[in-house]
Amino acid sequence: MPAIAETRDAVESLGQSTYKWGFETDIEMDLAPKGLNEDTIRLISRRKEEPEWLLGWRLKAFQAWQAMAEPTWAKVSHPPIDFQDAHYYAAPKKKAGPKSLDEVDPELLRTYEKLGIPLHEQALLAGVELPEGQEARAPIAVDAVFDSVSVVTTFRETLAKAGVIFCPISEAVRDHPELVRRYLGSVVPVSDNFYAALNSAVFTDGSFVYVPRGVRCPMELSTYFRINARNTGQFERTLIVVEDGASVSYLEGCTAPMRDENQLHAAVVELVAMDDASIKYSTVQNWYPGDENGRGGIYNFVTKRGACRGARSKISWTQVETGSAITWKYPSCILQGDGAVGEFYSVAVTNNHQQADTGTKMIHLGRNTRSTIIAKTISAGQSDSTYRGLVRMMPKASGARNFTQCDSLLIGDRCGAHTVPYIESRNMTAKVEHEATTSKISEDQLFYCRQRGLSEEDAVGLIVNGFCKDVLKELPMEFAVEAQKLLQISLEGSVG
Amino acid sequence: MSNEFVRIAGLCAKISDGGTDKEILRGVDLEIPAGEVHAIMGPNGSGKSTLSYVLAGREDYEVTGGTATFKGQDLLALEPEERAALGLFLAFQAPVELPGVNNANFLRTAVNAVRRARGQDELDAVAFLKAVRKETKHLSMSDDMLKRNVNVGFSGGEKKRNEVLQMRMLAPSFAILDETDSGLDIDALRIVAEGVNSLRAPDFSALVITHHQRLLDYIVPDRIHVMARGRIIHSGGPELAKQLEAQGYARFLAEAA
C-alpha cells in the first residue's frame, strides 16, 4: 500500500475526534488536483501571485527533480511514496476540526498537561475549531499563544525598530524580492538532492529573516510567533540572511506534539552568515511518530544547510528530535570564510518503530575554520537510529580543526544504534578528532534511582537528560526546560 | 507495633544465572525491633548482600518463600520506590555512577520524591540547599561534590560518604548499610559511623552488614547475627564481634552443619 494511503487509514482508525480534519480535502474549494506536473507548479505560483523569475526557478527545480531518483543510502526503510497521490496546493481553508477540547484525543491532552501547556494553547495545538463567528480571527490564532495581543504588537515594533525583517517567505517575495532572489537557492541549489528539488518546485511557505549589518536581533525569533505558522504545510522553506557583524537566534518547532495531516515533509532551510555574523538555529521536533506498531507517522526528509560566507562567521545548529516515523536530516555548515565556526549539537530519540538517520556535514574551505559536533542518540523499543556525519577538510583549509563526539544510549535489547562517520582530509595541517561511545541504561542505575525513591520513568528521564546534557545546555533556557520534559515523555514505557 | 518493626521469616530467594537457578537465601529469620541497630557478619557468599537487595526490591532475585514485613506492611509486595517512601534505605556496597546527572539535582529529586510520597511538602531550592549544606559539613564533604555527577570519578571513600549523605537527607526509618566500611580509612570510618549513630532514635533501626569488627567499634550494635549459606546461624550481643574477630566463623559453621 502506498505510504500516504496507509497513514490515512491508520489515522482514520484512530477515531473521528483525533485526526479527522486532515482528510476532508476532496471537495474543498481552491485545491490543486492531485498529482505533480508543470501545471501544478504554475498553479501554485499563480495562486501565490509570484513573479516570473520565481516560477522559472520552480520549473527548473521540477525538471531537475524529474531526472533524480530517491536516495537509498540512508538506513531507513518505508513503503514507496507515491508522489502523484497528493495535493500540492491547498489554500488555507475552513477545516473540520474538533469543536472543543472534549473531542480531542485524551492521550494528546495528557501529554500537553505533562508539558505544562496552558489550556487555551492546548486547543490551538490540537487544532480545535473556533466557533462560528470567530472565524475571521482564525488566521491570527497563534496570537493566543500569548496572554494578550499586545505582546505580538510589541514584538513587531521592536523588530521593525531594529531593522530586522521577519515574515512569511511569500510576503518577502513580494516586499523584498531583491533579497530573496539573491539568496534563495544559494546555499541549497535547486538540484541539490531529490527532496530539496521537490521542495524548490512546490514549496508553499516558510520564514524569511534578514538581519542588517551590525544588528544584534533584540529577541529570539520563533516560529511560535509567526502568524501563519499553522498553515505552512509540508514543504516549508526557510531563508535566514545575517549581514556583517549581525546576529540572530532562531527557534523552530515546538515541544508539544503538533498534529499534522501530511505524511511527507520535505523542508529546506538555508542560512547565510557574512563577516563576523552569527546564527544560532535551534529545533525541537516532535511530530507524530506513528503508533506503537509503527503505523502512520510523519516522514521527515529535511535539507538544512548554512553557509558561513564571511570571515569569523558562526553557525550553530542545535536539534532535539523526538518525533516523526522517519527522520532524514543533516544540518550542515559550509565553512567558507577564514576562521569560520560551525557547530552541531544533536539529540535524536527513537522509540517503538521510529527510524532516524541524522547527522551533519562540516565542509571546511577556509583557513583556521573550526567545527564541533556533539551527537547523542537514544534508541528504545524496536527503533533504529543512525548518526551519519561528514567532516571534509579541503586543500585550502590550513589549520582547520574538527572535534566530533557521538554517543549512543540503548534502552532495551531490540533497538539499534549505528554510527557512520566519514572523514576526508586533504590538508596536512588540518586536525580531526572523533570520539564515540555506546552504552545502555543499566539495571544497576535504574535500581539505584528507584531505591532512592524515584519512579522508573523519572529514573529514565534523569539518566537520559544526564546523557544529553552537553546538547541541552546549548538550547535557549526556556526551550531546554521543555526539551527535558519532552525527552522523558518520549521514552515513557520504554523500560520494564 | 514497636515489636513489629522489621520482621523477616523463612525468607528464601534465588537468582537465575545463565539458565540455572541458584538458591541464595534459604530461610532467613530476623527481627529488628524499632530503635535497634543490628549487624550481620559472615563469610563471603553467605547471602548478606542478597538479603539487602531482596529487602530493597531488586528484580534480579526471585523470592521463593517466606515473608518480610516493615511497619506491618508486606515489603515484598511493594515496588522499590514504594519501599523507599516507606522509609527503607540501602547504602550500596558499590554505589552506581550516573554520568551527566548532577549530584545535588539527583539528591533533591530523590528527597522530593519521597517527601511527596510521605505526604510532606517538597523542599524548594533554597531550603534544600540549606539542609544539604548542613549535612555535607557534618560529613566533612566539600560542596564541590554536590556539583559533580553522581558518583562519577568519586574515590571509594567519597562514594561511601555520598551514600551516607543521601541516607541522612532521605530520613529513613530503616537503613541497611551494605559494607559501607569497605575502602574507608579510619577518619572516614569515624565520620560515617557518626553519621549513622546520630540517626539513632526510637523509631529508627539499622542493619549493618560488615566483614570487620572494626566498624562495630564505632557503631555499636544491639545484636549481631552470623550468616552462612543463606541462613542466620547464630545471634548474640555486641561481644560476639570480638569473638568472631579472634576465632573466625569456623566454629559456628561447624555447629550449623
TrEMBL record, chain A:
InterPro entries: Fe-S_cluster_assembly_SufBD, SUF_FeS_clus_asmbl_SufB, SUF_FeS_clus_asmbl_SufBD_core, SUF_FeS_clus_asmbl_SufBD_sf, SufBD_N. Residues 160-217 form the SUF system FeS cluster assembly SufBD N-terminal domain. Belongs to the iron-sulfur cluster assembly SufBD family. NCBIfam families: PRK11814.1, sufB. This is Fe-S cluster assembly protein SufB. Pfam families: SUFBD_core (PF01458), SufBD_N (PF19295). Residues 225-467 form the SUF system FeS cluster assembly SufBD core domain. It comes from the Bacteria. One of its GO terms (biological process) is iron-sulfur cluster assembly.
TrEMBL record, chain B:
It comes from the Bacteria. Residues 6-254 form the ABC transporter domain. InterPro entries: AAA+_ATPase (IPR003593), ABC_transporter-like_ATP-bd (IPR003439), FeS-cluster_ATPase_SufC (IPR010230), P-loop_NTPase (IPR027417). Pfam families: ABC_tran. CDD domains: ABC_FeS_Assembly. GO terms for molecular function: ATP binding; ATP hydrolysis activity. PROSITE patterns: ABC_TRANSPORTER_2. Signal peptide: none annotated. Keywords: ATP-binding, Nucleotide-binding. Belongs to the ABC transporter superfamily. Ycf16 family. NCBIfam families: sufC. This is Fe-S cluster assembly ATPase SufC.
